[in-house]
Write a sequence for this structure.
């Protein structure tokens, strides 16, 4: 059986599977133009029609219904009560206008019927033939009705839509909740899944969900807009994409950073330089940047850094991984000019003591515990799981205490089981123990790193989400700063995928290996060299 490096593909509905995006646009126009006309009559406000290009695409497309109403009205400086979801369509509330739009959508849909994009249906069937799981994720509360009307409801193994979101409390686009939930329902990790979207808010959601590939469908001739907002690549239609291209994508390797001061480009190893024109696949231009553009491209850099393997070489025992004074001095000089955060799997207080640079952010336990100048955050769900973590740590200590070379670190929010010093014949025993510790407890999850197993709370939180939290606290946007994340471990891949297309990931590795990072450097020594050029 043919094997692929990705496990699932999750499709948006309107504009990707079905030709209902224009129906939505027409319904929105009818609802908003009617409301704007009433404001002209009642308040004397000049009527300015709702348009597809200037209003629907930037403010409404892809968002949950009431969020779309609120977003558009805010763009016009109109402030009305939110109301309640059961408001009648004639109420002057956000919900009332949203319900007016929905009634118009159903009316138009019943009149015209539901058409599908044959290329998408063909692609879905090909995926299913190859045993790749497929789902649909949509903001629309009419998703089930549309799929059923089109006769394609049974094609998709899971559906996470507006109704599901309201029931279980998922955040709408541009947050990645609905796509992450769909991936979970399919038994797939976002890292090994694809999001297919046609809306700006949708590709942003795929990026915020840290998916392995975010593919934009540019039916509005809006390639550039989708790429600028998080799509890894874009196509005018799914007839131009194939499984071989996607498989190639999942084997992408970072380019060498080369000389940190003089490099104009990333060298010849540019991903997908050939063959994309024939397929009509437009790869995000960020993948063709050179090192010089990243490091001195005009925007102020913000640094996020792992500790072990990044600021200090990996050691046989964690307590031996001590950062050199030279690296600390270089980091301190960088921190005097730029925002810096350490994002580590270690306990936050421990890594803070090890780095010993004041005035920067420290995110410990993969971001569950964050502290910076004047702010701090402990993830409440992770904190609630601490007794379970402690119990798991105790059981592992009892079971693995006799295994030579095993080392168990209990860190409050997580438990790390190091096996770097364990003989190969004992490693299966260690793996069996940690696997059993999480097998029957849905509130815990297992993560694998370099010669370490980590047991953490089963919370939708990781280093990438910690990066976003710190950026929000600092009031930073992707458009105004150059985010650079440097890390060496599997756990850093979540951050690489989160910042991809809107920041720069740098993998620290002496070997060329697959990674979501953009560039690679060979060692913590080169990290130090980078700081010395920046400081």
């Amino acid at each position: 059986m043919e094997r692929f490096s990705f496990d699932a593909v999750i499709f948006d509905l309107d504009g990707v599977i079905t030709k209902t995006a224009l129906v939505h646009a027409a319904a929105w126009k009818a609802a908003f133009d009617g409301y704007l006309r009433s404001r002209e009559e009642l308040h004397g406000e000049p009527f300015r029609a709702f348009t597809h290009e200037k209003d629907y695409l930037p403010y409404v497309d892809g968002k949950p219904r009431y969020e779309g109403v609120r977003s558009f009205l805010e763009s016009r400086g109109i402030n009305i009560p939110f109301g309640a979801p059961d408001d009648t369509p004639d109420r002057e509330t956000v919900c009332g206008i949203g319900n007016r739009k929905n009634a118009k959508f159903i009316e138009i849909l019943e009149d015209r019927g539901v058409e599908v994009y044959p290329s998408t249906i063909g692609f879905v069937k090909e995926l299913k033939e190859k045993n790749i799981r497929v789902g649909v994720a949509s903001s629309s509360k009419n998703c089930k009705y549309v799929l059923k009307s089109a006769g394609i409801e049974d094609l998709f193994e899971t559906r996470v839509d507006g109704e599901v979101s309201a029931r279980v409390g998922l955040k709408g686009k541009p947050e990645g909740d609905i796509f992450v939930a769909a991936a979970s329902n399919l038994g797939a990790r976002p890292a090994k899944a694809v999001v297919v979207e046609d809306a700006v808010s949708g590709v942003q959601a795929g990026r915020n969900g840290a998916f392995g590939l975010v593919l934009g469908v540019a039916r509005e001739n809006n390639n550039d807009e989708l790429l600028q907002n998080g799509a890894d690549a874009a196509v005018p239609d799914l007839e131009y994409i194939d499984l071989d291209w996607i498989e190639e994508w999942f084997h992408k390797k970072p380019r060498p950073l080369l000389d940190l001061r003089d490099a104009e480009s990333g060298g010849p190893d540019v991903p997908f330089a050939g063959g994309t024109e024939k397929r009509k696949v437009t790869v995000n231009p960020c993948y063709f940047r050179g090192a010089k553009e990243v490091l001195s491209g005009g925007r102020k850099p913000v640094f996020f850094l792992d500790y072990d393997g990044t600021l200090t070489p990996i050691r046989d025992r964690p307590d031996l991984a001590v950062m050199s004074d030279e690296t600390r001095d270089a980091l301190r000089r960088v921190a005097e000019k730029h925002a810096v955060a350490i994002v580590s799997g270690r306990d936050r207080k421990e890594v803070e003591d090890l780095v010993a640079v004041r005035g920067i952010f420290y995110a410990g336990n993969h971001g569950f515990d964050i502290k910076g100048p004047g702010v701090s955050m402990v993830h409440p769900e992770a904190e609630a799981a601490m007794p379970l973590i402690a119990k798991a740590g105790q059981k592992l200590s009892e079971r693995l205490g006799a295994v030579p070379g095993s080392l168990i670190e209990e860190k409050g929010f997580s438990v790390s089981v190091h096996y770097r010093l364990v003989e190969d014949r004992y490693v299966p025993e260690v793996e069996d123990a940690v696997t059993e510790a999480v097998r029957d407890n849905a509130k815990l999850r297992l993560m694998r790193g370099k010669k370490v197993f980590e047991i953490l709370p089963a919370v939708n939180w990781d280093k990438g989400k910690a990066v976003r939290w710190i950026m929000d606290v600092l009031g930073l946007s992707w458009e105004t700063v150059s985010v650079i994340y440097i890390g060496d471990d599997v756990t850093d891949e979540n951050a690489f995928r989160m910042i991809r297309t809107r920041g720069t990931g740098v993998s620290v590795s002496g070997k060329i290996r697959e990674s979501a990072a953009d560039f690679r450097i060979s060692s913590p020594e080169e990290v130090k060299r980078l700081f010395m050029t920046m400081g």
About this structure: DSSP finds 21 helices and 20 strands in the chain. The mean pLDDT is 91. The domain at 382-457 is CATH 3.30.70.1020 (Alpha-Beta Plaits). The chain has four domains: 8-18+114-249, 21-112, 293-379+461-534, 382-457.
